[in-house]
Design a protein that fits this description.
Number of strands: 12
Number of helices: 8
Radius of gyration: 50 Å
Helix content: 40-55%
Largest sheet: 5 strands, antiparallel
Order of helices and strands: HEEHEEEHHHEHEEHEEHEE
Distance between the termini: 58 Å
Shape: elongated
Strand order of the largest sheet: 2-1-5-4-3
Amino acid sequence: MLSLRYKLALYYLAVLSIVMLVCGVAIYGYISRSLVRTIDESLDHQVLKLEQIANLSTYDLPSEEPDTLPLNSPESDAIPIALHLMQVINQRGEIKTDSYANPNDEIAADLNALQQLQAGQTRHDTVVAPSGETLRLATRRARGHDNADFYVRVGYSLAALQQARKRLLLIFGIAIPLALLLSGFGGLVLANQALQPVDSITKAAEQIGAGDLTERVPVPAQPRKMDEIGRLAATFNTMIARLQAAFERQKQFTSDASHELRTPLAVMRGELEIALRRPRAPEEYQRTLGSNLEEIIRLSRLVEDLLMLARADAGRVELQCEPLDLAALCGNTVEYITPLAEQREQTLSYQAPPQPITIHADQQRLKQLLLNLLDNAIKYTEPHGKITLGLTVEQQHATLTVADTGRGIPAEDLPHVFDRFFRRSAKTSDRSAPGSGLGLSIVKWIVEAHGGTIVVESQVGAGTVFTIRLPLA
């Protein structure tokens, strides 16, 4: 199978062959027509002079049989040519006077064809003489002094024209193949030069395929020198950088998931081993089983969250969207989670809008979003703190705000709060708080799946505010 560089060279050669063939045919046709037109113009000039001579000498040609007729009229731009034939024919089709360069080249007069000419009209024909000579004829219908019509005819041999055509074809036959040969070689060189960066990209891709995601394709240092191949290399590098980041995230995700799953399993195994070392009272067994049940519930929630995020990444989670009164959903969610805030002696309030706010959304997913945000706020707010859920309408969007007076998030942690398994830094001592670090990742996915946006603002010691904007129905 031919490589791409040979295919490009062949395509280039094929297109060039067609162009040169068309140009050669056009040039050959143009030169041929130009030469014939020049001959016709000279024959027109000669036939007019023959008409003048015939009128003056009553159909008699000069006895000297000159190659070119004498000029009895003003000078003309036509080029004098050596005539091969001269005839004067009367109105009955009889040749009264003639002169031939070759006696075997006599052309008979066809009266019917001659009578089709109008007075003063000249017709040009190409005929083959009895000797085999190809002649170009100019025939003119003239009128004598006695008002009787007669015909004059001159002819010129096209042997020189045919020879010129053969030479032109010979030149084309040599020049065009030679030009195509040189062009094919040049096209192959250009294809090699053009595809050299592609070879570099291929080599880099082979190294990347071997597992080295740090490899990059060289690109021009100056953007203004970037051509199509340069842009391809830059795009390739960008794609590899994204793949590298994705693999690193996947690796980190796997590591974090393993850690989150290993910890409760280790706790459960340790408690069960201790319980089985010796006989114990029923109360101790009950306490151990209760502790294991809590860990199992935690593991179940973690596995469900992981499964949902995996399906979301694969695009396999379908939302059951329908018209939803967001104000009523917020009120019900606040009422549902208020006992949890009261256990921590916190104040949870809801700033309801004056009228219903309808959006097109999945009710279960939005309830999960609100519960995750409110649970996070309760979890990271000190006792006697305040948590506020607000809902307003701004520019065809419903705006949800969840604000708390908790410890806040350090500035360096804000870009990572939606990362999976991210737990806040040790500055806020929040890593001891319960949870798997997947809640905010699920929140972000739910918001984006509904075509909304979410942002977070926080200050250490002053609290945190999550702002969500969802399009109205």
